[in-house]
Amino acid sequence: MKGCISTFTAAAAIAVCAGELKVSVLPGEGWWGGATTYGTKAPFGLNAKSHSFDIRKTNDANQAAPLMLSTKGRCVWSDKAFACVFTNGVMTFTGDAPIELTQEGGDLRSAFLAAARKHFPASGKTPDLALIEKPQWNTWVELSYNQSQEAILAYAKGIAENGFPKGGVIMIDDTWQHGYGVWDFDRRRFSDPKAMCDELHAEGYKVMLWVCPFVSMDSPGYREMVFGTLDAGRNCEKGGLIMTGKKNVYGHDVAQAMPWWNGVSAFVDFTHPRGAAWFARQLKRLQNDYGVDGFKLDAGDIEEYQEPYVTYVQSSPSELCEAYAKIGLEFPLNEYRACFKMAGQPLVQRLCDKLHDWPSLHQLMPDMIACGLLGHPFVCPDMIGGGSWMAFAPDAPTPLDQELFVRSAQVHALAPMMQFSAAPWRLLKGEYLDAVREAANTRMKHVDYIIETAKACAKSGEPMLRAMEYEFPGLGAERITDQFMLGPRLLVAPQVVKGAKTRKVFVPTGTWLADDGTEVVGPTTVEVETPISRLPHFVRK
């Protein structure tokens, strides 16, 4: 191993390599890590026989970390992002910082716990438990780019009217605001935002607003940070945006123009004290003026930071993604989709938007398992049914799949969080609507245990949602990623195959009480019936 220093002790075999590390995969060994969206291929070496990634350049739309964990108790870690090529039974890592291989016990859980203690110790804090206790309601699919006070209140009213658990969190998505970086309600759409928040609070909801790290280049915030002037003409200290290091024909500093899905904008520099303070000040003003409770902090993906650029603390794209995530620690009611490192912290991490199709549904459980193994206990699946609003429009190119929507809701129901966006009462009928309503009510039956698990994982750093191999090593469950454990006692095995009426469930060691009242003694594999109304789950006695 070029550039490596190897040491061996009674406790662990360690290889520390300056920029490159080669790891031979052991017989029967599987690996997780790199990024959440690689979960469908994990464990590498058992499910996927080859894989490559470079989290220096992309987080692949979700959480990423320079961490790999094996079913044989081995761990690869670096303080900075790295690339990995896995082929022919060898993983080759390259990066800009030392890369370390350690042996920690003999299984996946021991590898995770050792890595967490050393590299990302648990904070002991949870996000706001309102995000976990009841289903979340995000307005994106129903309203897309047409958010308005009247429509949001109508959406909230429909929740209880249609028999779903009242209260929880309402997330108001993009276009509530006057502009990107102009973080105030658009009064053409919101005549009295304070009254709207008060009304939602009275109904038991907390209110989150969608925000992003972009700043329109003709906005007051842009002028303040680039030119050092406020709207009233007062001068202030400049700085707070990512810059080019160049000046324009007028002699003004030039901010870097970053392309993203809604256009081209300047980007807040979260390594700059002024940039981070400016952004936090906008959010706290929304809390103070209107009673907003928290924020969905979108974007900030590694690939959005287009080099070359100049930042206050010169940083790589992955480090800038990490700096954006740190601002969420000031707001207990938070959600991120893109993140680098920050494991063990009270930040909610949502899976990236999925399509409304069965392959996308199959990704949910493996990706949540992968996210937890990156050190993020508080993972939220994608929006129920998928996050593509066009799939739910009246003129959608393909018909809505009601069975798919139900099975998606069942995957969510006993995950760490459950998030609706498309209104089930608008889309579903008969037994399908009843089944989705029952999935939400199933969550409420187990809510005390779910909250207990969240609090325990905040202290231990362990995933709330766990691979079977994590909780029950040595039973041959390494390849199983279509069922999961929520904490140590709740086994969840949703149906994710279109039209299937039964599924096989691996039941580990112990005595388990199934949702249909039957008792199962493991380890064993059972075949259970899965009518549209059923979410198979088992409680360990």
Question: What would you note in describing this structure?
Answer:
The protein is an alpha+beta fold. Strands 1, 2, 3, 4, 5, 6, 7, 8 and 21 form a nine-stranded mixed beta sheet that branches. A six-stranded parallel beta sheet has the order 20-19-13-10-9-24. Strand 26 (484-486) and strand 27 form a beta hairpin. The radius of gyration is 24 Å and the shape is globular. Mean pLDDT is 95; it is low at 5-12.
Itemize the secondary structure elements and their pairings.
Elements (H helix, E strand, L loop, with lengths): L3 E5 L4 E12 L6 E5 L15 E4 L8 E8 L3 E5 L3 E6 L2 E14 L4 H12 L10 H4 L2 E3 L1 H4 L5 H13 L6 E5 L4 E3 L2 E4 L7 H10 L2 E7 L2 E2 L4 H8 L15 E5 L5 E3 L2 E3 L2 E5 L5 H18 L3 E4 L19 H10 L7 E3 L2 E2 L8 E2 L7 H16 L5 E2 L21 H12 L5 E2 L3 H4 L2 H16 L1 H14 L4 E2 L1 H4 L12 E3 L3 E3 L9 E13 L4 E11 L7 E4 L1
Helix pairs in contact: 9-10, 10-12
Structural class: alpha+beta
Q: How large is the count of helical segments?
A: 14
Average pLDDT reading? 95
Which percent bin holds the helix content?
25-40%
Strand content: 25-35%
Largest sheet composition: 9 strands, mixed
- The total strand number stands at 30
Q: Which assembly state applies to the chains in this document?
A: single chain
Tell the overall outline. globular
Q: CA-to-CA gap between the ends?
A: 49 Å
- Low-pLDDT sequence parts: 5-12
Radius of gyration (CA) equals 24 Å
